[in-house]
Amino acid sequence: MRKYGRNLLLAGMAGLGCLFFYLSAGFWGNIGWSREYILSYINEPLSENQAAAVMEQHLERVEKNIQKSEVKEEIPDFCIWGQREQVLLTNENLSRAIQADVILFCGSPELLFEDCRVPGREDQQGCLIDEEAAWRLFGSVQVTGKTITYENNQYIIRKVIPGRNGLAAFPAAGSSTSNRTDSSAEKGQPQTVQLERNVFNRVTIKKPEDQSVNELKTGWVSWYGVDIQMLDLELLRGAGGVCVLLVPLTVCVVFLINLCSQYRKQGKWKGKALMLCLILSLAALALFLFRRWIQIPDDYIPEKWSDFGFWAQLIKQKQEAVKLLFTFPKSVLDYGWGKSFLAAAGLGIAAEALTLLTAVMLQGRMKIKYKK
């Protein structure tokens, strides 16, 4: 009975470790979009007019680049955005109102919300809300084309985005009463004057193929006169990937140790040859799999391996990058990658602990059985 209980405990630990590993890999995959986009923080937040001016400069650069007859440069697309917390949104038809976080953006919303191409740059009346906000305002998620009121301005819902945060997103130009028709003015009520707020403190940039992150940062200062700090999500993705790889790496090491032990115990050359083939096959398979998983960014590789100052500078840069990731003001959109990293790292470490404990218990049982 005791033996059955131990076997059940080992099976349960192994199964739980596999589940944790699977979940860890899934959460780590949620950070995969960081390979295509760069998140950055603006040291001095921009106003709505300043963000619109930067976007105008960008569109002019793109237009001139199209008209070039010689070799064209790659101009990465971007979206400037910021967040206002707990803003009143109302559904006047149903007399419903909620307090929601609002994202104001200037640029393509597809860079902020996956597969979301609306509202376009010329659409000053469109907006986005998530599923939670739709339920609380309308009692349904089928609300595309319906209107909501934000700061006395009416907006048409272009799309309902996934999410349970109670979130709404409005184009930057549409958030100013100077560019909108106030619904209260249409009703003959006095129009309130809104002060311009400097809330645009974030930029999401589509990662270019022929530019490094440092080159892109320097270019932003010269192109648009805006000083930005790049958020090193690749560092978090790499750290999370290491935690995910702990379990398969441990499993490979344990199997290799056992195969090497069996190799030494073999008395005939046929047995040794078989064990050696198994060892080499397992090592080759592990190298093949880890090679696909592990990718070293270019900025981690010095031009000369004898350049020891490079490593000291790299460590300092990464320390500053980690500090920035923990200290910069977070928005509701940052909670996604933050939760994914913590879940991937935590579940990966938990899966590794269960794997090691299972391996130790199995090793102890095998020793006891061998002595008997």
Q: Say how many strands there are.
A: 9
Terminal residue distance: 19 Å
The percent range for strand residues is 15-25%
**What is Rg?**
28 Å
Specify the oligomeric state: single chain
Helix content: 40-55%
Order of helices and strands: HEHEEEHEEEHEHEHHHH
Summary keywords:
9 strands, 9 helices, globular, 2 domains, single chain, alpha+beta
Write a structural description:
With 372 residues, the protein is of the alpha+beta class. The chain folds into two domains: 2-33 and 235-371, no CATH class; 38-206, no CATH class. Helix content is 51%, strand content 19%. The chain has nine helices and nine strands. It has a six-stranded mixed barrel with strand order 2-3-7-4-6-5. The relative contact order is 0.16. The model is unreliable at 174-195 (pLDDT under 50).
Which secondary structure elements does this structure contain, and how are they paired or packed?
Elements: H1 2-29, E1 37-46, H2 48-67, E2 78-91, E3 96-107, E4 126-130, H3 131-138, E5 147-150, E6 153-161, E7 167-171, H4 183-186, E8 200-206, H5 213-224, E9 228-231, H6 233-265, H7 269-293, H8 308-327, H9 334-371
Parallel strand pairs: 3-7, 4-6
Antiparallel strand pairs: 1-8, 1-9, 2-3, 2-5, 2-8, 4-7, 5-6
Helix pairs in contact: 1-6, 1-9, 6-7, 6-9
